[in-house]
From TrEMBL:
Reported function: C-type cytochrome. Part of the cbb3-type cytochrome c oxidase complex.
Molecular function, one GO term: heme binding
Organism: Tepidimonas taiwanensis
Keywords assigned: Cell inner membrane, Cell membrane, Electron transport, Heme, Hydrogen ion transport, Ion transport, Iron, Membrane, Metal-binding, Oxidoreductase, Repeat, Respiratory chain, Transmembrane, Transmembrane helix, Transport
Protein name: Cbb3-type cytochrome c oxidase subunit
UniProt pathway annotation: Energy metabolism; oxidative phosphorylation
Cofactors, names only: heme c
Cofactor binding mode and count: Binds 2 heme C groups per subunit.
Keyword Zinc-finger: no
Subunit note: Component of the cbb3-type cytochrome c oxidase.
């Protein structure tokens, strides 16, 4: 991968760009110096469709000047703006810099609004209609892509409207931390620790039995002893642990799918879920309002 991040590619792009501009200038100059021997009637001798003859007339001067202006413009633009590889340009412009300036301007415009909410407790903020309207817009922009517009999630993305929280108690402090710093949930493949493929299936039925889901009772009985490989994270009773982010296996919430095959796949292949940190995109004041909105989703009353 380092081959694609080395300075070679910067030089390659800069070189190709500069050479292309010079080539355009050269061909423009060469075409002006090249003379075509014309016939007495000022044609080149090329004929199409029987009687369509090519005349030996030069390009109009204004057309030639446009080509020259294009070449000059390209060189000036390349000197002022980043065009030649990673050379910054005399104006110091960058797309990230422009985005940062526009973002700062937008944030300064709404700063008085967020200042009103900053000192409020998230649970009290959840009762403020204006704050919740702002929180809803923040949610739609930054959270709905994964958790859904109705916040009920989908396979692999948690439902935010229930009371099932993997890594914490669902209180505002935990929600704020998760939004700001992100979260990573890992379940390693456990098939080798469980035993044979048959043992894995027996364990899957035991896991189904913990939540009262339909299962094969004989297989579940045989798989009970194999649950010891899971107890370190999910607990001996299967109710999960916030400290490890391990889900409760005794309820009816299935983040990665329900049924024997889904559980077997989880045991054999594991999971690696990542929620990215949002503190690079949102200010602390925005996260404060969004925290109250997300908390209210699972505490509507």
């Amino acid at each position: 991968m380092s081959d694609f991040t080395s300075d070679f590619w910067h030089l390659y792009v800069a070189g190709i760009t500069f050479i292309s501009i010079l080539a355009c200038a050269f061909f423009l100059w060469a075409s002006g110096k090249t003379k075509v021997v014309a016939a007495a009637d000022n044609t080149t001798g090329h004929v199409w469709d029987g009687d369509l003859r090519e005349m030996n007339n030069p390009l109009p001067r204004w057309w030639v000047y446009l080509f020259i202006i294009t070449v000059v413009f390209a060189l000036v633009y390349g000197a002022m703006y980043p065009m030649f590889g990673k050379v910054q340009g005399q104006l110091g412009w960058s797309s990230h810099g422009q985005w940062a300036a526009e973002r700062a301007k937008a944030l300064s415009a709404v700063e008085p609004l967020y200042a009103k909410f900053q000192g409020m407790d998230p649970k009290d903020l959840a009762k403020d209609q204006q704050a919740m309207a702002v929180g809803e817009r923040l949610y739609m922009n930054y959270c709905a892509q994964c958790h859904g517009s109705d916040a009920r999630g989908s396979k692999g993305f948690p439902n935010l409207t229930d009371a099932d929280w993997l890594g914490g108690d669902g209180q505002p402090a935990y929600i704020h931390q998760t939004i700001a710093q992100g979260r990573q949930g890992i379940m390693p493949p456990m098939a080798a620790a469980v035993g044979t493929a048959e043992d894995v299936r027996n364990l899957a039925h035991y896991v189904l039995s913990l939540s009262g889901s339909p299962h094969d009772s004989v297989r579940a009985t045989q798989g009970a002893a194999k649950f010891a490989a899971c107890a370190a994270c999910h607990g001996a009773d299967g109710k999960g642990m916030h400290a490890t982010g391990a889900p409760n296996l005794t309820d009816q919430v299935w983040l990665h799918g329900w049924g024997e095959e889904a559980i077997v796949r989880a045991i054999e292949k594991g999971f690696n879920n990542v929620m990215p940190a949002q503190n690079a995109l949102l200010t602390d004041a925005q996260i404060h309002v969004l925290t109250a909105y997300v908390w209210k989703l699972s505490n509507p009353n």
